[in-house]
Amino acid sequence: MAIVKTSGFGRSWRARALALGAAALASHGAATADMGLSPLRQVLDLEHSRAEFTVSNPSDRIVEGRVSWVDLAATETGYEPAEPALRADLSAAPYLVVSPAHFRLKPGGRRTITVEIKTGAKPPKGERRSHLLIETEASRTALRKASDTGLQVDVRLGMSAPVILRNGGKAAAKITDVKLLRDDDGLLMLQTMIESQGVWSSYGRMVVTYTPEGGEKELLGIRENVAGFTDADQRKATIPLGFVSLAAGELVVRYEGAAEFEGVVFDSRAFDISPPQED
Questions:
Q1: C-alpha–C-alpha distance, residues 248 and 243, integer Å
Q2: What integer pLDDT is reported at residue 137 of this predicted model?
Q3: In-domain check, residue 6
């Protein structure tokens, strides 16, 4: 899901802002700012042709919003506006209908947004994806109080969540380019790439376990909401491990399925860890 605040934006600027927001919040839950949107994603096919999103208003003001579609291409770390040539093969929007197109929420209110496959639609084989786009009308918001009158700005809020449309095929993915790195505090973190190898995108979690020599296996880290999209050559995932060093043992990285892929193991890689070298 993406969330970004903008002021007086046009179509191309809006798409760039939404893409940046999607990249920043790809691994987070529903929005908790002036508006919320959940779940993170929805998947439709000919047997499950209807899905619902919930829009919520946790603010103390009335929210006026509109619903539409935006096509975003997956990148290594997020999304960017899809070029016209890619949209022809990527977009699910021509096969979907969404309602309502507009909504009004009182403070604390909620509204269900329904997405369905159009009656009689015949989606192509494989997978397509569009992002459900929720935009609010501009509201006058205090930016900072620099005087008795303060400074005000007209702010719009935009959020998006992917809707994936499938018709035949399967998902497959491979773990590549695994690295042990250090964060700014000197703690270990694991970075890996996910390479999609099926006609469907993959979705799940990265799980890192470690078994010291002569010891028992322990969980080092989990990264949820990891997707490998077919329109991106690779997707990067980073998992903080929280250790300065590891003793000799075995490190295992697994890409496990979640949601519709729960119980699937897309790929697993094992690595021998050598004893830390003494200075």
A1: 14
A2: 73
A3: yes
